[in-house]
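Progress note, sequence design subtask.
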């Protein structure tokens, strides 16, 4: 961060009003220490990323382990390889099912590497409904995802604050430690979340591009 500020120089950054960043406290604090005029925004991309990593992934693992201990191997198996489905929003699941019906190609074959063409698989919505019907916490995850979408569509600061407070109440209402942890995270970053209503910015696209570059590098 300091290298970036040194590179762009104070004159340039003095014309910047707002920055979007993740919820790393050190990062935001360091930025504001050097440039206190900035307004920090915690956009939906980073909040959803935190929720996916700190709640959905961990809740699924905890639930699967508990089901195995209880001897319910069938229910435990139903959660296997379910992370992507649980992370996907309703629109994404709907789109994938439509692509599957249309026979959309998602991976080209390669004679050199012995890979066959792969078509989009269907059943995403049905799979999610099955998971939700069997486990109460995935159901809560799905509801929260929709609530976050609605909250970040607010253009009024009071409205987004009220929406996020309802989400925090729901987090705590689950009684789950992972939800409680994210509830504290949201409360500690509430002002930056509310700032989204005033400054409609996000660096989600940049983060996505960076992730794509990393994936391509790993693939060689």
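Output:
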């Amino acid at each position: 961060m300091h290298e970036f500020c040194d590179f762009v120089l104070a004159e340039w950054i003095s014309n910047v009003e707002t920055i979007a960043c993740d919820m790393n406290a050190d990062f935001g604090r360091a930025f504001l220490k050097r440039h206190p005029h900035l307004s920090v925004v915690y956009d939906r991309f980073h909040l959803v990323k935190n929720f996916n990593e700190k709640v959905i992934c961990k809740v699924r693992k905890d639930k699967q382990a508990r089901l195995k201990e209880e001897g319910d191997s069938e229910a435990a198996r139903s959660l296997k390889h379910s992370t992507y489905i649980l992370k996907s929003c309703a629109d994404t699941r709907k789109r994938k099912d439509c692509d599957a019906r249309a026979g959309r190609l998602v991976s080209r074959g390669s004679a050199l590497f012995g890979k066959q063409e792969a078509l989009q698989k269907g059943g995403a919505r049905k799979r999610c409904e099955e998971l939700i019907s069997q486990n109460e916490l995935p159901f809560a995850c799905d509801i929260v995802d929709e609530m976050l979408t609605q909250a970040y569509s607010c253009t009024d600061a009071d409205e987004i604050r009220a929406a996020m407070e309802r989400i925090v109440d729901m987090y705590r209402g689950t009684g789950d430690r992972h939800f409680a942890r994210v509830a504290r995270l949201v409360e500690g970053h509430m002002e930056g979340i509310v700032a989204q209503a005033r400054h409609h910015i996000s660096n989600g696209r940049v983060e996505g591009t960076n992730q794509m570059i990393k994936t391509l590098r790993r693939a060689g």
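Residues 44-79+135-219 form one domain. Work on this subtask will continue into the next period as scheduled.
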